[in-house]
Amino acid sequence: xxxxxxxxxxxxxxxxxxxxxxxxxxxxxxxxxxxxxxxxxxxxxxxxxxxxxxxxxxxxxxxxxxxxxxxxxxxxxxxxxxxxxxxxxxxxxxxxxxxxxxxxxxxxxxxxxxxxxxxxxxxxxxxxxxxxxxxxxxxxxxxxxxxxxxxxxxxxxxxxxxxxxxxxxxxxxxxxxxxxxxxxxxxxxxxxxxxxxxxxxxxxxxxxxxxxxxxxxxxxxxxxxxxxxxxxxxxxxxxxxxxxxxxxxxxxxxxxxxxxxxxxxxxxxxxxxxxxxxxxxxxxxxxxxxxxxxxxxxxxxxxxxxxxxxxxxxxxxxxxxxxxxxxxxx
Length: 330
Hints:
Helix content is 34%, strand content 22%. α2 (85-105) packs across α3 (120-128). The strands form three sheets. It has a seven-stranded mixed sheet, with helices on both faces. Strands 2-3-4-11 form a four-stranded antiparallel sheet, with no helix packed on it. Strands 1-5 form a two-stranded antiparallel ribbon. By secondary structure, the chain is α/β, with parallel strands linked by helices. It folds into two domains: 3-67, N-terminal domain of TfIIb (Single Sheet), CATH 2.20.25; 79-318, 3-Layer(aba) Sandwich (Rossmann fold), CATH 3.40.50. It starts with a helix and ends in a 12-residue tail after the last strand.
């Protein structure tokens, strides 16, 4: 089937807010797939009741995979297989920051990575300490790679489809996953049931308060329509996590801000109405060098310290004696 015919068959659905069930919403953004240029126009709205943003209408679960091409970045090869030593060093540094942040919560235990892609983070965690690492990944090709390359325990499918024992994990991680889920509320409920009392949910999401979001507006990488089905304003996220039995213990930025900024800059230039500006779209990619990264690192580190980077990592503690999701929707 040709690509044009494939996207003509993509089914869309209109949905209520997954967190509170309200259908009332205000338009935030309307746009196209800037990152991969795939067909369609998409709408992001904000719930009038709880403040969570959602894509409405949106591609259904059955067809959303068409918007994840083979070169989608999270499906990355093993770090050791990177041909560039600079790229290997950069990726390992980023993974080390994640591993260090988790190990500061506790030095060892049982960890579940939801949406583990090709297993790079899980593998680094097994090298970092005495961690029993398990993954869930809906893309079977990525899951198979993680099993074959690293020998990891990877369950193919989604949280809803995988039967795991309750209260069996000390930490659950979701790296740039929550915004992709069709049912984030229900999946957070499942995560709460899988965590032990006092366990930690650690997840990264696009930061709506970032400098990039303000500067680049509708061409900000963090919107990533249509793959990002939900967006989470900080206050709305904290309130909804509290209803699910979680207390937010901190917000941190764990790397990657430089690359995200440059991609947003490229998307901004490519989308300009001025031909002269569009001709400069090659510039951000040309500037993604080790030298420019080094020279600009103080600026990006300052953005990270002030939680103004494109992606923020949330550390949420499951309150002892609570059953996540027991309070239901608002």
